[in-house]
Amino acid sequence: MNKMIYIIATIGKPFADLILYAGGMLNLLIEIIFSLPYSILRLNLILKEIYFSGVKSIVIIAVSGWFVGMVLGLQGYNTLERFGSVTMLGSVAALSLLRELGPVLTAILFASRAGSGMTAEIGLMKATEQIEAMSVMAVSPIKRIVAPKFIGGIIAVPLLAALFNTAGIIGSYFVGVTLLRLDQGSFWSQMQDSVDLHYDVINGVIKSAVFGAVVTLIAVYQGFVAKPTAEGVSNATTKTVVSSALTVLALDFILTALMF
């Protein structure tokens, strides 16, 4: 009997942990939503978070987008050459970036740089008892710290995704037109004919905003639940990156099924 209880407890623990994790995230999200009116009026806090999350991520996003575009250009050319349709390279690269690679890779890079930084910041504030001090002074940490980060993430990720897509298209142009000598008129005209504003661009922006909200929510939640030690903060930042990457990939499947 004891052995059976042990087996059931062992199997059920991951599911119980998942439910508690989802419940904690949902509770935090509700608190953030109720705090949004206060935070929206504090534009300086939001701009500060956009600078931290967005501006400081520009280099890694632009460089990554450039190389991803170059790879798309090279692989796309080799694949399309088999079917004699290399003129479609521009449209293939643009659609791949706008629909999938841009939003997904931007969100994962955002989690790796900005998300882990948010977790570390909140975790260290918790470890040094700054969070408790704010509560004692009747200052809500959710309104003052978390909500501005949440808004900043929703704004920053779509902008970074747009930068990633632009750099990627330029990278594919560099490989296809400059290195492989494709006709640049065909490259741009095929891209223009294939890309639809609502179906491709707007849906990509919606994806990016959803990913930004989810990644930021995971980052701040992990900061709040981190153990107030150096090891605890380190583990929390690792969980942020891993959880964000898995969640983004799962959400990408769901959103793609609904949108396209």
Task: Describe, in plain words, how this protein is organized in 3D.
With 260 residues, this protein is mainly alpha-helical. It has helices spanning 2-40, 43-53, 58-82, 89-127, 130-136, 141-179, 184-194, 197-225, 230-259. The chain has one domain. It contains nine helices and no strands. Helix 4 (89-127) runs antiparallel to helix 9. The protein starts with a helix and ends with a helix. The mean pLDDT is 86.
Break the fold down into its secondary structure elements and pairings.
Layout lengths: L1 H39 L2 H11 L4 H25 L6 H39 L2 H7 L4 H39 L4 H11 L2 H29 L4 H30 L1
Fraction of helical residues: over 70%
Q: Which regions have little confidence, pLDDT < 50, spanning 5+ residues?
A: none
Number of domains: 1
Structural class: mainly alpha
- Average predicted confidence as pLDDT: 86
Task: Summarize it.
The chain is an all-alpha fold. The protein has 9 helices and no strands.
